[in-house]
Amino acid sequence: MKYEQSYTVSASVRTSRILYTPSSFARLSLLHLQEAGSSTAIRPHTSRREKLPSYLCFVVVDGSGRLVYEEKEYELSVGDVVFIDCRKAYSHSTDCNLWSFQWCHFYGASMPAVYEKYRERGGKPVFHSEDMERYTDILTELYALASSSDYIRDMRINEKLSVLLTLLMEQSWHPEGGPLSKKRMELTDIKNYLDEHYTERISLEDLAQKFFINKYYLTRIFKEAYGITINSYVLSRRITAAKRQLRFSEMTIDEIAAAVGMCDASYFSRAFRKVEGVSPTEYRKQW
Q1: Which pLDDT does position 138 carry in this prediction?
Q2: What is the pLDDT averaged over residues 265-272?
Q3: Long-range Cβ contact pairs of 277-280 (< 8 A, separation 24 or more)
Q4: pLDDT digits 0-9 by tens, 145-194
Q5: Do 79 and 60 form a contact (C-beta atoms < 8 A)?
Q6: Residue 192 and residue 195: Cα distance in Å, rounded?
Q7: Cα separation of 209 and 102, whole Å?
Q8: Backbone dihedral region of 14: left (phi > 0), alpha (psi from -120 to 50 degrees) or beta?
Q9: What is the pLDDT of residue 5?
Q10: pLDDT at residue 153, rounded to an integer
Q11: Closest by alpha carbon to 61, among 121, 10, 134, 161?
């Protein structure tokens, strides 16, 4: 693993960056850094990129600018966070109120799926954070790690990028007062009911009637709020309860299937294998 640290001054921007080359192990198995740095504009300018095998996160720390991404234009100011897939064309620019920002480009084999889930759950290319320092701290730490001689720095970079992704997910999925928060409030009683009655037969029609809600609307907002269908949520609760019984009881497979609301033991075994990758009997032997 190698890095190249540089400080450059162009006609438009002062930049401090590290270009980082991860080990082959990190490239194949970990979230890995490509570059990190900070930039301060010294005159208005526009930067354009496309088809980069990279994901970009940056936070505006001073001034203002704009981002064009997926044929939409976003006005950016201090505290705004950008998280985009650089395989798609994008540009960012600043005018009179010259900006400064910190950034990192990174990648990993799992990133396309992670970003797809991010967008599926309501994550936006741009959102405002009231706690900008959390981002700048992570970006500063990534810069320091990349320039360090730590012999496990690829592991530490992977850990720090995971922290960054977790923060991005947390803050963009649940913006204060946003649509997702309102949907979660609307679904609180329904989710509590599922948690208490998951061992019973629950139909979408019964839920809709019980909570006076259109079943098609319920299906849509539950998936939007929790990233999972109602049926999948109930199945997850049943499988979790079954795992507890498999590990900590002497109940038979048939008894466990009935106890978690899946009276057909054959169906229970198939569903368990689909979720856990092993049969209930194999799972019990593992523990």
Answers
A1: 98
A2: 95
A3: 280/242, 280/246, 280/253, 280/256
A4: 999 999 999 999 999 999 999 999 988 765 444 455 556 667 889 999 99
A5: yes
A6: 5
A7: 51
A8: beta
A9: 66
A10: 95
A11: 134
Percent of the chain with pLDDT over 70: 92
User: What's the pLDDT tens digit per position in 36-52?
Assistant: 999 999 999 999 999 99
Helix (H) or strand (E) holding 33: strand 32-41
Around Cβ 161, how many Cβ atoms within 10 Å?
24
165: CB partners within 8 A, 6+ apart: 31, 114
**Are 122 and 183 in contact, with CB atoms under 8 Å apart?**
no
CA distance 36 to 95: 23
Tell me the pTM: 0.71
Distance CA 48, CA 56 (A): 13
What percent of the chain clears pLDDT 90, i.e. is strictly above it? 81
User: Residue 261 and residue 269: Cα distance in Å, rounded?
Assistant: 13
Q: pLDDT at residue 204 above 90?
A: yes
For the record, the structure tokens of 50 come out as 């496309």
Which own/partner pairs from 222-227 qualify as long-range (CB within 8 Å, at least 24 positions apart)? 222/187, 222/190, 224/121, 224/122, 224/180, 224/183, 225/180, 225/183, 225/184, 225/187, 226/187, 226/191, 227/117, 227/120, 227/121
The alpha carbon torsion through 191, 195, 196, 201 (nearest 10 deg) reads: 90
Residue 130 parent element (H or E): none
